[in-house]
């Protein structure tokens, strides 16, 4: 037994020795494991891309537009002053006539899709067809059980789901030049924001044609799309619309690469669901804003602190997490990281309700038909809102440069903001509030205090709860008693929109996604139809008239004058007050140079053509 | 038996039906599909709202929508996540795989360590080690996941990566590490003063020596196990495994275990050339099966009256040795991995499940997966570990006070056999009912852990869909979790019955 064991071990050791000598030679060979040696800039973003058609219902979201910003070029874009800049390397456009408003777009000769197909007027034409509702001839109708009753008609009909107001004003089918490079639109009535109607949201018409009409040749497919639109061929437009609505939706790299065709500085290289996507520089891109880094990776990280730690760990180079005091202090403690405090597109404001027989309603019987009294009460109330204290206590810890916003329409930092604030009459309401003036106004109005003000807000939002507490304190000094009608988030939206008889003042945020002058229309309009966002039932014919003019004004200076006129009315009427712009924070590794975030989308991705990755 | 299972399944189905109904109503009451539009100042807001109302069929009462959803669900149509237009079945696929990847390792490690520590602590009841274990496990048990995760990232990833820039430990660190490990081992092993002193000295020397070795051999930057470490560790483990499974007196089992170590070593270099071929997890699985087979064969070849016991010890050892060879190969790519531009000398990741733009072959990818799994796994282990320690400790204590243990001791069985064969096995019975339920709970996604580590698993899918007011992915998730929970309970009952002869399922 003993001998047997010993011999077994000996044999084993001998065999090891043999094998060792036999294989010793090859063990030294090293390999690099096939590792990719290229460098990349990595950016963190909150939500993953879900569609490359930015104009359809599902595609209309920030996570898509920021990626598309790098993939696709366009006729114009915002610069760091939020001024719209023409990109003439992509194509040009000019207003040919004011009456009727006629705009001619001409595509540059070098503008191409990444698969080599030329970008031309047909791509612009498709954008118009899809967003103008001209061809929409059927909408799903549902019975009381929610079943679509006209499914066959919907299947056969045409329904593009991306209708927008501007292109809807172009009723006439546009004309395309013979070389297919120019397209001319004639508006049925002037439209202030015409420049924002066709910017950079184009989808490749030839891909739409190939996919929906089962054609293989790119040019043939493109021509088919063009002919279908120009000839109002509903039978062909039906599949085109269906594909346009949802064909470009994907959440991981699609098998069919034609869906990712783009016309800008980068092409989509890889997309791993919910994790990251990789953009590679498009070598054939001839436009002005050439990608400067070879590869850009966007990683999807929802948690703000996780973004900060990923930055610290070198996994990402650039982040724009949701701002909070924690995030800010964590970022400021990081060495070799640049931090930028700024603002985002959403702003906080207080609106008063005019049409509910409450304290701010001019028709409230208490005032005996004297609208002037109600106005003084409104002004007095707005004077008690401690805007500076709110900003100092709640926003400055998140953004040390935070300031009180004093314009109802313009974003701070936009071209005319300073001029607007100087002239719009908001200086009647000092940022710090003015209790004495408020008391004096109340005395003039001759109302008995205390006045109950029912205050509506989302009471699950800690910041709003704190603001209401500050307002309650301050308002009490002048004789207003705040009655808390805050609701949880789930009920708050309904209360705001339809429960005007249950509140007198409301506190919430509006989000701007562009500098479109018609964007504020819905907030202030009463006639002929109340604006969708005019929750306070504000009614001022002068404002409505100015809004009407603004809709059709195409001259930037005139537009500003109209906006100023509207704001003067609003501030004088005590429509409400604006408090602060939501804080934003961005941070990047110092070795990444050229980052310059802007207030509205694409925020941190703006200026990607100047990014440089230092050593 | 059959009637028991079918009865339980039917009852489970009923529970599932009722719970989906309740959940559907609750979810549809709590989500706000228009939230993003409420703040919008888009000029076409009205159309957007109308379209969404249409799309989500919101004019239909939730109860009717539930039955429509149920009808689709049972016919295999899980619906669509409307914000991205993706079918729910696609969304689930990736999420399930990611979650299983995360949970599998964490559960196994937590069970192994938890049970081990729990049992040792039970055997040393009321000793310092026992109190220490109780203290630590309660601390871990009460730690919030998001906090542990953030700390792990700070020290385990950022701190460790910084350390890798210049990997050297000061003598003080080495001594302290040695003292701590030495102390822990001493407390765990216990015994007379002399024995304690010896244990402490050995553990101290081993720890300090290991750290010194790692440092002097530049191990942190060019890690490897190499034949020498595999031989030393393998031999030690062969002894340990034999000691636990059959006792060192069983010379055949020991011989068989040692033989597999030798075979493993003999194959070390030939395997290196094999590893250079295009590799995949299928090969790994195949090799693992071969390894087990070789272990069993060696055990049988050593012969004797209890071949089975030898085979068990040998195959266990074989798996451990093969595992070390595999790890060694993965480690060998560490320098290249560290040098990759996508890694940039900071290998331990805080987010995601893979590095973008890394490229690389099977081994690089495997290494990359590990560096991403490390921290989330550790976070889960720390929290779960505590529970298992508590369970196994109390279960072991109860068992060790049973009459049959006294009988076993009285009839003169060696203590190892009393503990391993009579104590340990019975300790596992209550654990067998806890583990399946625990695993299922984890499959539902370690929501917070996934969120903080930005892993695209089930938990992330759930929370994202809920925030986005997408009821169909949320329901799919809830149905899966509920169904698994019901199944887990049935399985736990069956396991219990199989393990404990006192329980009968058809009773």
From TrEMBL, chain A:
Signal peptide extent: 1-27
The UniProt record lists the keyword Ion transport: no
Q: Where is the Solute-binding protein family domain?
A: 94-513
Per UniProt, which keywords does this protein have? Signal
**Domain of life from the UniProt record:** Bacteria
Pfam families assigned: SBP_bac_5
Q: Can you supply a Gene Ontology BP term from the record?
A: peptide transport
Per the record, GO CC terms? ATP-binding cassette (ABC) transporter complex; periplasmic space
Any GO molecular function: peptide transmembrane transporter activity
PANTHER family for this protein: MONOACYL PHOSPHATIDYLINOSITOL TETRAMANNOSIDE-BINDING PROTEIN LPQW-RELATED (PTHR30290:SF65), PERIPLASMIC BINDING COMPONENT OF ABC TRANSPORTER (PTHR30290)
Q: Any idea what this protein is called? A: ABC transporter family substrate-binding protein
From TrEMBL, chain B:
Cite the entry's keywords alphabetically: Cell membrane, Membrane, Transmembrane, Transmembrane helix, Transport
Listed GO biological process terms? transmembrane transport
Q: Which GO terms describe its cellular component?
A: plasma membrane
The record lists the membrane-crossing segments as 95-119, 131-152, 172-190, 197-216, 228-246, 253-269, 281-302, 309-327, 370-388, 428-454, 474-499
- SUPFAM superfamilies the UniProt entry points to: MetI-like
Q: How does it sit in the membrane?
A: Multi-pass membrane protein
Q: Which protein, by its recorded name, is this?
A: ABC transporter permease
Can you name the source organism?
Oerskovia douganii
